[in-house]
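FAQ: What does the model actually see?

It sees only this:
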Amino acid sequence: MKFEGIYTPVITPHREDGSIDRDAFAAMIDHLIGAGVHGLINGGSTGEYYAQSMEERVEMAAFAKEVIGDRVPLIVGTVAIRLEDSLRMAEHAGKIGAAALLVGSPPYSVPTERENALNALAIDRAADLPIMLYNYPGRMGIMMGEEFLDRVGRSRNFCAIKESSGDINRVHLLARDYPHVQLSCGMDDQALEFFAWGARSWVCGGSNFLPKEHLALYRACAVEGNFDKGRRIMSALMPLMRVLEQGGKFIQCIKHGCEMGGHYAGPPRPPLKGLNKDDKRQLEQVVRVLQRTVAEIEAE
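And it is asked to produce this:
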């Protein structure tokens, strides 16, 4: 499978009582597909999978596929502390006709690279689908290092990696030493560098509420090869990246951004709380300037 373009890890809209608003979820999917994103991810951290029961995760993956149909590829997240739960999600993804899996490291247990690779290979066997690895040591506690990559490379299904370590040297390593593994940007403030090193896709939570602007950077860099234009767009996006990546309020900002655009998102599930008035005002100001600036660049 070729991963090309913008892949949005879709939010999960919640009512005030914490229950999932399926109608708002379906509306968000329709909006994103209409905006031109290239694929959708269900069960990512932006979708608050960690705050859902396994029954909810299974149900929402099936519902996502039902709403999407064959319009864009659906990638199903399998990250879980227990291997049994990851296997269940992988098997379910295969049954509902998902296009691929998103496979990360099991949080908290801190396995060795060999143990982590065996865990990933077991998930692979459960579904036999294309896999995008998810390297996010900040959340999961371990790095998908070279031993891990060499071991999982025995299966052709491991065809891409969402690199979210924040270490630019990892981008260099993956591009030079693992060219057969498609590089996908998973660190928003390094998107320009990822594209310069050959990435063809970007998994970006911000595209939930600013798909046009994220698509603009992808087109400039990966399609047109116009890195002068790309640098200008990235410069306009950087204040947003700073707001999203700093302060530990990533999901809260994404959800408020969706609300700003007229799309119901509702509150995050505990332990997270919504933004306060000052945080909302800061995000709103950044978004207004960003949208105006990118529109001007695109109009030239």
